[in-house]
From TrEMBL:
It comes from the Bacteria. This is Helix-turn-helix transcriptional regulator. It holds the Pfam family MLTR_LBD. CDD domains: HTH_XRE.
Length: 273
């Protein structure tokens, strides 16, 4: 259930909008400040007009009435109320339980650099650590990844994609003890991305390419199976180290939702690194 469906959620959104409205100086949005003005910040009617809304409807929203604003309305309010990206996301989460069209957060440090450093500093052990974008392009990996998967550094940059490698490189079918299960799993995980990024051109090109290159990918993609990212066991096969079952855990750094880091951990609580 979306939190807005509860009275608590509606009150929280109403209070948040009111607090943001009251902090805006009218001059910030091009409105004159007359000598008789007593309202702190903007008036409700002013917010409504600037956002292209009915004053009565916006008043209901600030009163916590049982109405549901669209994503477009929320973004219009975010523009008028000069919300930061964090505040805009928060408002969307209150109203819909998810963020519509998330924008990159400005941390002063490129997200891809953060991801590369994260892999570099945490991937010093014997277990694979690699980083992907949402289209499964491999952007960073540790030495253990080259042992258990492939040396992505030796591949052409256009081929450094986990999905492409799994379906087109014969080595992949050797490295996975149960290739079919893991391949179906990665297709089902990839299936969730278009719902969050419907306009992702890179993902669209990848799907078209993979449907052309692999009949198995085409079959499983059209089956529409969906699996959210969650930990799972994966057994990898090494020519000299033998078979090893690991727990695959995917994490998303807080500064960006466009990249993920895949960690391989001991399969059981009694296993050691």
């Amino acid at each position: 259930m979306v939190w807005l469906d509860s009275g608590l959620g509606r009150r929280e959104l109403a209070q948040f909008l009111r607090s943001r409205r009251e902090r805006i100086n009218p001059e910030q949005v091009g409105l004159p400040v007359g000598p008789r003005r007593r309202t702190a910040g903007l008036r409700r009617e002013e917010v409504a007009v600037l956002a292209g809304l009915s004053p009565t409807w916006y008043c209901y929203l600030e009163q916590g009435r049982k109405i549901r604003p669209s994503s477009e309305v929320l973004d219009s309010l975010a523009r008028v109320l000069l919300l930061s990206e964090d505040e805009r996301r928060y408002m969307h989460m209150l109203a819909h339980g998810q963020v519509a069209e998330p924008q990159p957060l400005d941390t002063g440090f490129p997200p891809e650099d953060i991801i590369r450093q994260l892999v570099r500093t945490t991937g010093i052990g014997q277990y694979p650590v690699y980083a992907l974008n949402l289209s499964a392009d491999v952007i960073a990996w540790n030495h253990a990844t080259t042992e258990w998967y492939a040396d992505f550094g030796a591949l052409d940059p256009a081929e450094r994609n986990m999905v492409r490698w799994m379906f087109t490189d014969p080595t992949a079918r050797i490295r996975f003890a149960d290739w079919e299960s893991d391949a179906q799993d990665i297709v089902a995980r990839l299936r969730t991305v278009p719902a969050r990024r419907p306009h992702d051109a890179r993902l669209a090109r990848l799907v078209v390419e993979m449907k052309r290159l692999s009949a198995e990918f085409r079959l499983w993609w059209e089956e529409h199976d969906v699996i959210e990212q969650r930990s799972r066991l994966r057994t990898l096969c090494h020519p000299t180290l033998g078979n090893r079952t690991m727990r695959l855990v995917v994490v998303y750094p807080s500064d960006t939702d466009s990249y993920m880091v895949a960690y391989h951990l001991p399969a059981g609580p009694n296993d050691t690194l």
